[in-house]
Amino acid sequence: MAAIRGDWADKYREKWSWDSVTWGTHAVDCYPGGCSFRVYTKKGKIVREEQSGSHHPVEEGIPDMNPMGCQKGACWSHCHYSPDRVTKPLKRVGERGEGKFEEVSWDQALTEIADGILDAIQDQGPESVITPLTPELGAQGARAWTGFIGTPMTDGDAEFQDFSPGYHLTWGLYNPVSTMDDWFLADLTLIWHANPVYTNIHWYHYLAESRYNGGEVVTIAPDYSPSAIHADYHLPVRIGTDAALALAMCKVIIDADLYDKQFVQEQTDLPLLVRKDTGRFLRGSEVYQGEREDQFFWWDTSSNTLTAAPRHTLASADVEPALEGSYSVVLADWSTVEVEPVFARLRRHLEDYTPEKAGEICQLHPDNIRKLARKVATRKTKIFIGWNSGKYYHGDLMERSMALLLGLTGNWGKKGTGTRSWAIFGADGEVMQFGKDAPGQEAAQRFIGVVMAMRRLIGSSDPTMTKGMLQNRMLEMAPQVSPMGMPAPPAFLWYYQMGYKERWNNPENTDPTMKRSYDEYVTEAIEKGWWGAHYSKAYQTIQPRVLYEAGGNMLRRNRGGQKLLLEHFWPKLDLVVSVDYRITTTGLYSDYILPAAQHYEKIGHSMLSVHHLHWVLTDHATPPPGEALPDLQISIRLLEAIERRAATRGLKEFQDARGIAHSLEGISGQMTQKGAIQGEDAYWDEALKDTATFGVLPEGTDLATLREKGHVRFTNWGIMAHGQSQASTIKPDEIHTPLRWHTEDKIPYDTLVRRAQFYIDHEWFLEAGEELPTHKEPPPGHGGRNRRFEMTSGHNRWSVHSMNMTNNIIQNTHRGEPFVFLNDKDATDLGVGNGEKVKLVSDVGDTLLAAKISPSVRPGQVILYNGFEPYQHQNWYSQSDLEPGHVKHLGFASGYGHLKYRIFSWQPIPADRAVRVDVEKVG
Ligand code: SF4
């Protein structure tokens, strides 16, 4: 056939030519990310990108991960050339928020920012320099400087609020999750509090493929969600009642004797004995003089005796722990108490959750609850959860109830079972290289030696501690003892300095069953030293002076809204810095905007996620435009400026509120190992070599390996606690399923009772009636009592947070403006037509959007998918301005077994679901 010729054909051919091809990915929180792209460049400009499709099958019979990608990634390079791109440092010349900036040199900007930071340290102390840990992974280099001078970084899992509190309460672990290919093996997948058709485009195929493998998919959601369309069944649960549904299924399973008795006896706390008089676990120190407090007991029915549940193993081959009954136990002081297993209490507790009663609560037919319960009990079941449940006020109870459903049916620790959250690991080389005493892998080995010695020291007091426990203990100690600026829970900063105290003490926003005032709980938590004396007390007096936001967009993201922040937080700030590749709403309210390189203009990686288990490279396709810099270079140059300006002031060191001294001399040299890793290539080559030294990547992996292959599969969890939480061994030819060390090797869990823990006998939980998973309605006044609608949310199909919502290609795939989904009958009732402007109003604020009308929305529900920039709204107020930003008081509970702060784990987190709003027609 003759070749087609002509202008248009040649133009088309021209489009498919390029000068160079590099690897690319997106270093953002599109969790789990991990998509490997090829990026094509011509004449110094990126002309196209495409999915690399370069994954190989891992385990025979299970589909590979290809093609890995989503529509945001497929047009990512348009962000590089968008009109809101910043290419030179900007300094504010008008009022904050006015949008007037002038271009300045890096030297001027960094000198003035360094002076602002030093002023704050000298005025209020280092705690006054606030750097939020944002979900923009690629910006972590721009935040790295904080570790070298010792200013705090607020914990991202509270900032972006993707914590799964109920899972932490149950397993005491940081998010045990499988690789995505394990979803193929599920016989039954419950899509619950998630909408993967929108948000997991790159790996949703495993859910569809599981149906070809004989599996069934059930979507549990209040609306007929986009993911419901592709499911075998849809259960339209009433908003906020998911715990009742899960508990009713638990009741059906227990009543029908369908529960996995051996799993329950071995893996969970359900056989452990609880005192009937106090409702607390029977403890070793009560039974025997000198015994440990954290020794727990069960009743062995084969010997009919009280027996100590072993702390070093889950194996219980020679005993038959009772699940029912009541027993008398003589205590060390010769008094007698009645005790019973948790299971017996659970059985009674579940009397309130018959399918009929739960059906009324959840507005579901009881037969459908029974039917689903029997399916869960008889099949390998996975719960596909997102980060929706944790955002409900009682999300912890929902997640605990779901975990109970899995626990009763033996549905974790084997292939095709379990649940999910977000889980990262594998940054050992990146994080630890700053702690090494010299460049090179010998120094990395020495560093490992120090960690092992510390681990041995911690373990010397209790030889039954597992590797995971030792690493968790080290992580718990870090914020207290480290001279570095460690992540800290931001709740105390929010409470005392950012205007949230009044909101959280408003009884309308809280659970009406709460027994005392909110402030009493916060004060008690601080006085008992549960959160360490440092950060919990610091913000009672220390005022924030500097906000350094790198890759984040606080004025869009923070629950509570920009009105609250601009009123209470911003006036205290002498300096606001936004480091970004574009101008965000937060940038518009900043004093300086520092231009950062975009993802194809620097070296970096995608989320180091357990879901895909790969280190995925993004590389230089083009240099950053104008004067934009890779994030690490920004940190190095800022440290140089701080050092220089400190020397000018004669300031050599300062102390933080703990009295720990921080030197200001040689800090930039520390970050670059005296220049050895100053350049980007040198830094990443060293980081990758160290990561291989830590065993996380194959031996010999370096930057050249990644440049050749694009991505490399992990080989081990490394020495950081987050990886160990997966509790399974990574094998090269096997998909990953977490918790197998517990189910197969009988290694204990890191909870107070060393078993999966459904009974929390912390004094606050007992007081709240939440010792067992239970259902509680969302606070009726959360957003405003008697307001007609309940607002739900989730990630927009068209965004990875707000950064993609200003991509013009993406805007052309939706209405190009913020919108809210409304039920068609509700819209008729309100007289609102499709596309017409509506105002959403809560007690704390309002926002203007276009109505998108759909019968798939539940009557009484409004769905406001997040991600729109506030400045895309008519009055600049967005979704977060409707949210009170409330934190459940039990989040402050600590001082109990596994209820202790570790980065990305147990801490107070805000609720933003089921906010009550009114909808008003505009115009
Ligand atoms: Fe994959 Fe995330 Fe990139 Fe989309 S944005 S292609 S999910 S890495």
Give an overview of the whole structure.
This protein has 923 residues and is α/β, with parallel strands linked by helices. It has 36 helices and 34 strands. The strands form nine sheets. An eight-stranded mixed sheet has the order 5-4-21-20-19-6-7-18. It has a six-stranded mixed barrel with strand order 27-31-28-30-29-34. The protein has a five-stranded parallel sheet with strand order 10-9-8-16-17. A hairpin with a 5-residue loop joins β14 and β15. α11 (242-255) packs across α16, α11 runs parallel beside α17 and α19 packs across α20. The longest helix is centred in the middle third of the chain and has 19 residues, at 441-459. The mean pLDDT is 95. The chain binds iron/sulfur cluster. Iron/sulfur cluster is lined by residues 25-26, 30, 33, 35, 69-70, 72-73, 202, 606, 800.
